[in-house]
């Protein structure tokens, strides 16, 4: 992706407690180190109590709005599959969905099946990448708290984000507290494959 | 901490609330008070961490009125003061605010108020704080982004110092929780300790002097209006004149985004001052236009002002705003671009395919392991929930209204569960259980409790003592300060004249359920203090 990139829009969706705000911080630092203007928007408080959480990051030459417009996402990072259905609002046929194969059931609701979710997402975009990230991280580290970092790193290696993977790595080192850094660096390596 | 680095000109990524803290530090703030409330909470959280290092006095006060009163005392003593709260807090402190604008400041004072369009983190109402600026005659600035949060905070202190009046900064969720690169200025070391110098002429609001004070205030506002007319924060971006746009706050960002996307070159008047408005500047702007679009979030207060000014300046002007932009819910960039496109006769393709599915509705839930689950189960053991009225209010326990819990029959502001329970008891006599959180009890729950004793009603009040202000991010409160030995809630309840009061750990389910049954039969008010720490507090204590 050339440096004169006009804008790049990312929406991250999932449920409360999946670390969206940390991912946003890492992405913002990486975009900053690549020399872009950035704007992010996040939510705090009530929405974090297990509710749906959606955060936005935009970067490019000149960025005003902190919110991604309807149909203008370049990348949707889905940490939970059902939440991706809502994110279709931001998708156009070229939007890349990078999705964690993981469903958090909603109390008192029959969860959407994987098939149902994929069928519907395909109506919104042609670029659907379903990754068993939760399973991979669980198997490798015994925890899936690093799923977001895994997908983010993967996105940089697969060139789904216009950053050098090294920018993501530097941002991880800057943002993640010492105590958890080793696990996150291992996750980055794992995504490199 | 990067926020405290005195590197002038350095750019760092800051959230709106962090930039407000930085702006206050650059202005040399001495005294900061707050009551936590999203989307303003981070301001207090950050000051509670940095106060020692930055040499600032900081407190979490018992409620917003008390926070403002503390701030007024600091200002009267000559200190630079910041008081932060969310929109509902402004209602709580309004009684103290209005006379403070009359007396004016001694130490410059800034009041930060954060609104939450779309109620992302708010119950009770989608409140727009703007008309309170007119009501209180308080100069009000509206930043659009974190850089302006920093710059406007410094400017607000300057305006306050120059005109001896408190200045309000109004943000919204999308400003407070927006991040961008912000250029830092120089941190000013807070000055000396304050000193209250007696000055009854300024500080006593009694008639007949109070009417003189009102005249003086209106004179001041005239002068500030002149300042606002010349201020660079009311900025005009001149382009061609087919359609003009007047806007402020984050809606400005959506306007600029839309103009870029639609490839239009329209003149935009961006207002940094919401009150007093630069009326001449607005009149001069609309004089040249055939059409104007007012882009503002929530109720059309700005639009009404423009209508009033245009009557005189340009009676033929076509004014667009509320007919194209909703009055409920926050604005989004596509709403603004669609409105502009419509007036300009441009086609816009939003490209997205919105699924027609039963929606994924994920309501917030009490955390796993939350001690409130045990209160819920004890209640369900003790009573037929259809035969009891349950009063809720603001805190994690407002989630009691969600299925499968269903223990909430009304919900309003902080402290109101008890006051309303009293009214229901007096009117309908049905059994009522009112929930009130520990922080909420100290905030506004004590006067209504005293009222049930004074005016003799018998609701059962369950004080949910989880020893923290959990919902807003675990801030301390008088019953649970950082150090142990907070004020004992049961002692306060007894001192209010309540005879039937018991402190119970709800893990003792049988005792809890039996006490509910017993207390519901009493002919006087009764109180259970359900005491067990929030899971996050318990984690910290065990760490």
Give a nutshell description of this structure:
The complex is a heterodimer of chains A (193) and B (543). With 193 residues, chain A is of the alpha/beta class. Chain A has helices spanning 20-33, 81-87, 114-124, 133-141, 147-157, 165-175, 178-192, and strands at 7-15, 37-41, 52-60, 75-78, 96-100, 127-131.
What this model shows, in words?
- The complex is a heterodimer of chains A (193) and B (543).
- With 193 residues, chain A is α/β, with parallel strands linked by helices.
- In chain A, 40% of the residues lie in helices and 19% in strands.
- Chain A has a single domain, classed as Pyruvate-ferredoxin oxidoreductase, PFOR, domain III (Pyruvate-ferredoxin Oxidoreductase, domain 3, 3-Layer(aba) Sandwich).
- Chain A has helices spanning 20-33, 81-87, 114-124, 133-141, 147-157, 165-175, 178-192, and strands at 7-15, 37-41, 52-60, 75-78, 96-100, 127-131.
- Chain A has a 6-stranded mixed beta sheet with strand order 2-3-1-4-5-6, sandwiched between helices.
- The two termini of chain A are 22 Å apart.
- The mean pLDDT of chain A is 92.
- Chain B is of the alpha/beta class and 543 residues long.
- Chain B has 3 domains: 2-230, 3-Layer(aba) Sandwich (Rossmann fold); 235-344, Rossmann fold, CATH 3.40.50; 372-542, Rossmann fold.
- Chain B has helices at 16-27, 41-54, 64-76, 87-103, 130-136, 146-163, 173-176, 200-203, 209-230, 249-262, 279-287, 301-313, 333-344, 372-382, 416-427, 438-454, 489-495, 509-520, 535-542; strands at residues 11-15, 31-34, 57-60, 81-86, 109-115, 140-141, 167-172, 178-183, 235-237, 243-247, 268-270, 273-275, 291-295, 318-320, 388-392, 410-411, 431-437, 460-465, 500-504, 526-531.
- In chain B, helix 1 (16-27) runs parallel beside helix 6 (146-163) and helix 10 (249-262) packs across helix 13.
- Chain B is globular, with a radius of gyration of 25 Å.
- Chain B starts with 10 loop residues before the first strand and ends with a helix.
- Classes of the chains: A alpha/beta (193), B alpha/beta (543).
- Chains A and B meet through helix 1, strand 2, helix 2 and helix 3 of A and strand 8, helix 10 and helix 13 of B.
- Strand 2 of chain A pairs antiparallel with strand 8 of chain B, so a sheet runs across the interface.
């Amino acid at each position: 992706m050339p440096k004169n990139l006009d804008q790049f829009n990312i929406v991250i969706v999932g449920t409360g407690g999946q670390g969206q705000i940390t991912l946003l911080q890492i992405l913002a630092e990486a975009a900053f180190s690549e020399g872009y203007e950035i704007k992010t928007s996040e939510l705090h408080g009530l929405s974090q109590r297990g509710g749906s959480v959606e955060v936005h990051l935009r970067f490019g030459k000149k960025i005003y709005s902190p919110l991604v417009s309807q149909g203008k996402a370049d990348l949707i990072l889905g940490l939970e599959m059902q939440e991706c259905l809502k994110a279709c609002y931001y998708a156009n046929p070229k939007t890349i969905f990078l999705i964690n194969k993981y469903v958090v059931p909603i109390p008192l609701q029959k969860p959407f099946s994987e098939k149902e979710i994929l069928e519907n997402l395909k109506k919104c975009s042609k670029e659907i990448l379903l990754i068993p990230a939760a399973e991979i991280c669980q198997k490798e580290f015994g925890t899936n708290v690093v799923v977001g970092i895994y997908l983010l790193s993967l996105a940089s290696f697969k060139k789904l984000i216009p950053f050098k993977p090294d920018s993501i790595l530097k941002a991880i080192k800057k943002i993640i507290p010492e105590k958890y850094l080793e696990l996150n660096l291992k996750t980055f390596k794992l995504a490199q494959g | 901490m990067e926020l405290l680095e005195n590197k002038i000109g350095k750019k760092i990524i800051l959230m709106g609330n962090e930039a407000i803290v930085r702006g206050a530090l650059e202005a040399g703030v001495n005294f900061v008070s707050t009551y936590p409330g999203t989307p303003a909470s981070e301001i207090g959280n950050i000051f509670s961490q940095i106060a020692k290092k930055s040499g600032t006095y900081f407190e979490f006060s018992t409620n917003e009125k008390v926070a403002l009163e503390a701030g007024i005392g600091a200002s009267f003593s000559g200190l630079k003061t910041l008081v932060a709260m969310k929109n509902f807090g402004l209602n709580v402190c309004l009684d103290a605010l209005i006379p403070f604008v009359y007396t004016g400041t001694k130490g410059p004072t800034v009041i930060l108020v954060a609104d939450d369009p779309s109620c992302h983190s708010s119950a009770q109402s989608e409140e727009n704080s703007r008309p309170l600026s007119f009501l209180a005659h308080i100069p009000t600035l509206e930043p659009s982004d974190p850089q302006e949060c920093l710059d406007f905070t410094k400017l607000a202190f300057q305006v306050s110092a120059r005109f001896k009046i408190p200045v309000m900064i109004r943000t919204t969720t999308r400003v407070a929780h927006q991040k961008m690169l912000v250029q830092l200025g120089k941190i000013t070391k807070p000055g000396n300790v304050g000193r209250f110098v007696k000055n009854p002429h300024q500080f006593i609001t009694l008639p007949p002097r109070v009417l003189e004070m009102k005249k003086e205030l209106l004179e001041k506002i005239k002068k500030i209006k002149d300042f606002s007319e010349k201020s660079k924060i009311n900025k005009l971006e001149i382009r061609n004149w087919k359609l003009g746009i007047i806007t402020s706050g984050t809606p400005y960002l959506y306007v600029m985004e839309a103009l870029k996307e639609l490839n239009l070159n329209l003149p935009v008047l961006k207002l940094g001052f919401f009150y007093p408005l630069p009326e001449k500047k607005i009149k001069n702007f609309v004089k040249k236009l055939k059409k104007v679009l007012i882009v503002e979030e929530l109720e059309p207060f700005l639009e009404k002002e423009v209508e009033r000014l245009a009557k005189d300046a340009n009676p033929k002007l076509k004014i667009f705003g509320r007919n194209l932009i909703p009055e409920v819910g926050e604005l989004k960039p596509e709403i603004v671009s669609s409105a502009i496109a419509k007036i300009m006769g441009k086609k816009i393709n939003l490209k997205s395919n919105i699924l027609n599915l039963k929606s994924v509705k994920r309501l917030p839930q009490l955390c796993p392991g939350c001690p409130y689950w045990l209160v819920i189960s004890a209640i369900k053991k003790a009573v037929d929930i259809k035969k009891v009225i349950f009063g809720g209010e603001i805190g994690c326990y407002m989630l009691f209204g969600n299925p499968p819990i269903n223990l909430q029959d009304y919900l309003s502001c902080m402290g109101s569960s008890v006051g309303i329970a009293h009214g229901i008891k007096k009117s309908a006599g049905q059994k009522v259980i009112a929930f009130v959180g520990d922080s909420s009890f100290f905030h506004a729950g004590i006067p209504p409790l005293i009222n049930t004793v004074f005016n003799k009603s018998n609701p059962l009040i369950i004080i949910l003592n989880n020893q923290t202000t959990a919902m807003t991010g675990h801030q301390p409160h008088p019953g649970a300060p950082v150090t142990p030995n907070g004020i004992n809630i049961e002692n306060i309840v007894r001192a209010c004249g309540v005879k039937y009061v018991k402190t119970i750990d709800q893990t003792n389910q049988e005792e809890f359920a039996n006490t509910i049954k017993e207390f519901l039969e009493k002919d006087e008010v009764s109180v259970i203090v359900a005491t067990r720490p929030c899971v996050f507090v318990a984690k910290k204590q065990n760490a």
